[in-house]
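Lab notebook, bench 4. We co-purified these components, and the gel suggests they stay together. Before we commit to crystallization screens, I want a quick structural picture of the whole thing.
Request: model the full complex, all chains together.
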Amino acid sequence: MIALLIRDLRLALRAGGGFGLGLAFFLILTVLVPFSVGPQSALLSTIAPGILWLGALLACLLSLDRLLALDFEDGTLDVLATAPLPLEAALAVKALAHWVTTGLPLVLASPFLGVLLNLPQQGFGWLVISLLLGTPALSMIGTFGAALTVGIKRGGLLMSLLVLPLYVPTLIFGAEAARRGAIGMAVETPLLLLAGISLGAVALLPFAAASALRMTIR
Amino acid sequence: MSLLKYANPVKFLALSGRVQPFAWAAAAIGIAVGLGWGFFATPDDFRQGSTVKIIYIHVPSAWIAINAWIMMLVASVIWLVRRHHVSALAARAAAPVGLVMTVIGLLTGAIWGQPMWGTWWAWDPRLTSFLILFLFYLGYIALWEAVDDPDTAADLTSVLCLVGSVFALLSRYAVLFWSQGLHQGASLSLDKEENISDVFWLPLVVSIGGFTLLFIALVLYRTGTEIALRRARALSLRLDRSV
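Here is the predicted assembly.
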């Protein structure tokens, strides 16, 4: 498992583009928001938590079609499916690698982008914590979506259609926690629910993803 | 004697052929009576005037939209466990009907909401969950269309239906948490306290029954079509091989 993780991380780092792409997308989206809604700082600080969450979510989505597609094309997935390591574990590791290369950088970058959007002082900590708790769910759900659509030619757009509705609960609780943190309200409830979704997704979705993948490469 | 006997397409088609005329007729009668009674024979609501009458389309379509998904869920589980093709095809046949009913529910709701709430749309939990359900239907149908091999398509859509159901339920409670409601509570729950008045209730139940029968008739008909399509596909494959 560790070897697979290291392999995936190394590929993501060396393949070029994949690693920084999500981060660059996140930055550009955040920069575009003031152009589209106007530079009033009061308005920006109101919508900042929601925009940053949406940006992180879309950046996650953007890198999903690389998650399994390349391995599917060169036959790595067939090897993984017949390897002694259960496919469920292999997919969980792939989701972890996706999170380390996409989710974690987004979490680390979010405070800097929060400055651009005039996020209130007290909101920074909660934004980072909510993203830290929520992005694992985004990676895991995305892995499931990628496993569903990996055998379909030009499945990228279809995958967005399938994955985005599944992201709804995560987005609601995550953005709500960040928003409440920014205006100084209690954040425990949405944070706990968000953590629950993440844990549930990590515990159960590898099985769904693996069964979907077996159906494709059978 | 079990329902699974009808997993055999021939038996299913024979039964469905016998049931369908009755289902169509009963659906037509139920909808005609329910809507006619509702539109012409019930009094106007004392606050809402005659706009209340859209309820006889709005509630039944919403009812079908939700129950069609539940039926697809059951059919998907049967397909995954027992691998009966009719079951997978029935789920496929039900999806567009559910999608259309969701759209009807949303549209009639908007038409009703404009004079009553003063807005076509509000981010109310019920409205929002229905919009999310609409997206789930879209994704489900799109996945069916995208996969070439019919068995793989049935497998993948079944898994999507299972996982989607969990997430649809999660979204339902998430939006409850996220926004306060404008929509009224349950109109037909079993504890009578919050129900609507009997004058409106009886034609509404008739109308819901009519819509349910219409749904059953449509699904039977469309499943028959799917079976015919599958046979035509098998025949043309065999033809290609023999040439």
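The two ends of chain A are 22 Å apart (CA to CA). Worth comparing against the SEC data before the next meeting. Chain A touches chain B through 28 residues (CB under 8 Å).
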